[in-house]
Design a protein that fits this description.
The complex is a heterodimer of chains A (448) and B (222).
Chain A: H1 10-36, H2 46-59, H3 66-79, E1 84-88, E2 94-98, H4 110-120, E3 126-130, E4 140-145, H5 160-196, H6 214-270, H7 275-305, E5 314-317, H8 318-335, E6 339-343, E7 351-354, H9 356-373, E8 379-386, E9 390-397, H10 411-424, E10 428-434, E11 437-445
Parallel strand pairs in A: 6-8
Antiparallel strand pairs in A: 1-2, 1-4, 3-4, 5-7, 8-9, 9-11, 10-11
Helix pairs in contact in A: 1-5, 6-7, 7-10, 8-9, 9-10
Chain B: E1 3-7, H1 11-23, E2 27-31, H2 38-41, E3 46-50, H3 58-68, E4 74-78, H4 83-90, E5 95-98, H5 103-116, E6 123-126, E7 129-132, E8 137-140, E9 145-147, H6 151-162, E10 167-169, H7 170-178, H8 188-200, E11 210-213, E12 217-220
Parallel strand pairs in B: 1-2, 1-3, 3-4, 4-5
Antiparallel strand pairs in B: 6-7, 7-8, 8-9, 10-12, 11-12
The chains are: A alpha+beta (448), B alpha/beta (222).
Protein name (chain B): DNA-binding response regulator
InterPro entries (chain B): CheY-like_superfamily, OmpR/PhoB-type_DNA-bd, Sig_transdc_resp-reg_receiver, WalR-like, WH-like_DNA-bd_sf
Subcellular location (chain B): Cytoplasm
Chain lengths: 448, 222
């Protein structure tokens, strides 16, 4: 089988989708960094600017006195009116301050100072501590401000990106995946439907292969299977034809010599024969008839068993059919001196779905059996019967019954054919046989 | 009596049938294949055709004959008994007899066919009646009177004569004569048979010509 080209395979397609999605995630991260954190247009955050400026201003105080410091505080207060500013001098005294909180102590000892620094480090409020003139001996100046009053660390201008593009990316990925699987599903459903379509011969129909991927390959495999099936059906039909031909020929080949035997026996019969010879000719004649029937039955039985006997059921008026059968057999019964008792009345349902030729065969076999095995009774009856649940055709004789050994055996196969045919036509039948006669009932259960 | 064209490749059977039919008064032309059939067709009343022939098979020959001469009766004679063969045979042939047949049976069927196709210029004697089949003249030979029938009576009686010795069901008779489906309970046929009997029978109460077969139908027997 041809393998699918890698690029056309569904795996490749799906891998492409996944890789695109992954790539998109990276793209999103980078994009977010670029747009949100403003990497290119980088400026120090305000805190850092404050820190730098505070230290610079503190350092620039060469000989810091409270005047200088107050001037510096004023300048800063103009920029940050809400900022708290204070100076703790070398003696730990709170020497100057603006906007001071109530809990700021007047005197700072080493422990409190350490604690203060620890508490404020990288915390809110944002706090910068610097030494004036860069010299600890002047004490330290403190700037503190609530962080919320400062500009945020990043630009919020592009924050929409986070709200729309990222979910958009996810939706896009889901949509593409969904469409991909929807496409596969649609094709699988189409394939399923196509597989269920049957041609006039009961075989599936080949599918048009539209794509060269795994499903396409499945379709090709299916088409190949259909071809093989059709091929095998053809072979089977050819074998069937051969078999039928063989049986027909066999029948022909057996009957031709039989005809010749009959011809010669007939020629002999015309000669002046002794009574013994005449009887022998008569026996030959009877044997020919018997052989003929046996061949016919054997072939029918073989075909029936192989379910190869032509069967064409059609709604048929069986009362009329039965009348025509007994009409055809009438001379034979008459010749044997039978009393022929025909009582064919209307049935509740007289149209049965049967093959008339099969019905003929059934009655031929039954009548034949009566002539061969129930000659002594000199009676043949053909009647209709109605009960609450079924309609029936009844064949009666007054022979010695089935248990009595008839001089002519071989009724078995004839009745076996009747049995197979009755069942195939969805009829039923029963045999009631006693010393005083046999009743065979062919039953058709009424459909509601 | 009749000119029979018989096609059979099997020597023994061919010789025997030819002899037998000749003994019964027919003029038989026996061919062993369907090749030279054309020149004989114009001069025969009936064709007896075997199915298995060398070259062109009996079915094909039969179909061709029927196409050219639809009123020439064909009797298929075959050792093939499959239903399909019979059905195919009877799709064009007028009768299908399977081997091994009895010569009496063959002779009877030949006669039925000849009568059905009106090939016999026969003078039939049924009890007190003499019937000239070709022009359907019916004479009571005991009284010397000619019996005249109406159109329908004539058709019914002719149908009986064409199916002489056969038992005809009322459906068969009605459909054969009227050419339309028989409806259960229809008394038309019975009424016509009664009138026909009044003309034909010596004693219409105890009919001898048109027998009633109880439960089945009627029969006219030779």
């Amino acid at each position: 089988m041809k393998s699918v080209k890698r690029l056309r395979s569904l795996t490749a397609k799906y891998m492409a989708i996944i890789l695109t999605a992954l790539f998109l995630i990276y793209l999103l991260i980078i994009g977010t960094s670029l747009l949100v954190f403003n990497v290119y247009d980088h400026k120090d955050p305000e805190t850092l600017q404050i820190e730098k400026a505070w230290h610079q201003d503190a350092r620039s105080l060469k000989n810091p006195g409270s005047e200088d410091i107050n001037r510096m505080f004023e300048k800063w207060q103009n920029r940050y009116p809400k900022a708290r500013l204070f100076w703790v001098d070398s003696n730990g005294r709170l020497a100057a301050g603006r906007n001071l909180a109530a809990n700021i102590p007047k005197h700072w000892n080493a422990a409190y100072t350490a604690n203060f620094i620890k508490a404020r480090y990288d915390n809110d409020p944002f706090t910068v501590i610097a030494f004036p003139n860069n010299d600890a001996s002047y004490g330290f100046v403190v700037f503190e401000i609530e962080r919320k009053l400062l500009q945020p660390a990043f630009t919020e201008a592009n924050a929409d990106f986070m709200y729309f593009i990222v979910p958009g990316g996810i939706v896009l990925f889901v949509t593409v995946s969904y469409l991909f699987f929807l496409g596969i599903r649609k094709r699988l459903l189409y394939l399923q439907q196509a597989m269920e379509i049957r041609d006039v011969d009961g075989l599936p129909v080949a599918i048009t292969v539209r794509k060269q991927d795994e499903i396409g390959q499945l379709e090709m495999a299916f088409n190949q299977m259909v071809d093989e099936l059709r091929e095998s059906r053809k072979r089977e039909e050819a074998e069937e034809q051969l078999r039928k031909e063989l049986i027909a020929n066999l029948s022909h080949d057996l009957r031709t010599p039989l005809t010749k035997i009959r011809a010669h026996a007939y020629t002999l019969e015309k000669e002046a024969l002794t009574p013994v010879a005449r009887q022998a000719v008569n026996m030959i004649e009877q044997s020919v008839s018997k052989m003929d029937r046996l061949i016919e039955n054997l072939i029918s039985y073989t075909l029936l068993n192989a379910k190869k006997l032509k069967y064409e059921p059609t709604p048929t008026d069986v009362v009329r059919l039965a009348r025509s059968f007994i009409a055809a057999w009438y001379p034979a019964f008459e010749k044997e001196g039978f009393f022929i008792d025909v009582q064919l009345d209307d049935l509740e349902q007289k149209h049965w779905n049967v093959d008339p030729l099969w019905m003929e065969r059934i009655f031929d076999n039954l009548f034949q059996n009566v002539i061969r095995h129930a000659k002594d009774g000199k009676y043949i009856g053909l009647k209709t019967k109605k009960t609450d649940s079924y309609d029936a055709l009844v064949v009666l004789d007054r022979g010695k019954g089935f248990r009595h050994k008839s001089s002519e055996k071989g009724a078995g196969i004839g009745l076996a054919i009747v049995d197979l045919m009755v069942k195939k036509m969805e009829l039923d039948w029963k045999i009631e046989s006693s010393e005083t006669g046999t009743i065979i009932t062919i039953i058709h259960y009424r459909s509601c | 009596m009749a000119r029979v064209l018989y096609i059979e490749d099997e020597q023994e059977i061919g010789r025997w049938v030819t002899m037998n039919l000749t003994e019964r008064g027919h003029h038989v032309t026996w061919l062993q294949s369907g090749e030279e059939i054309e020149e004989h067709l114009a001069h025969c009343d009936l064709v007896i055709l075997d199915v298995m022939l060398p070259g062109l098979d009996g079915f094909s020959i039969g179909k061709r004959i029927k196409k050219e001469q639809p009123d020439l009766p064909i009797l298929m004679l075959s050792a093939r008994t499959a239903i399909e063969d019979k059905v195919e045979g009877l799709s064009f042939a007028d009768d299908y007899l399977t081997k091994p047949f009895h010569p009496d049976e063959l002779a009877a069927r030949v006669e039925v066919l000849l009568r059905r196709f009106n090939k016999n210029d026969e003078i039939l004697k049924l009890k007190h009646l003499t019937i000239h089949t070709k022009d359907m003249r019916i004479v009571n030979h005991e009284t010397g009177e000619e019996i005249l029938l109406t159109g329908k009576q004539y058709q019914i009686f002719q149908y009986f004569l064409r199916h002489l010795n056969q038992i005809l069901t009322k459906e068969q008779l009605y459909e054969g004569v009227w050419g339309e489906p028989y409806i259960e309970g229809d008394k038309t046929l019975m009424v016509h048979i009664r009138y026909l009997r009044e003309k034909l029978e010596k004693d219409p109460k105890n009919p001898e010509i048109i027998e009633t077969i109880r439960g089945i139908g009627y029969r006219v027997r030779k």
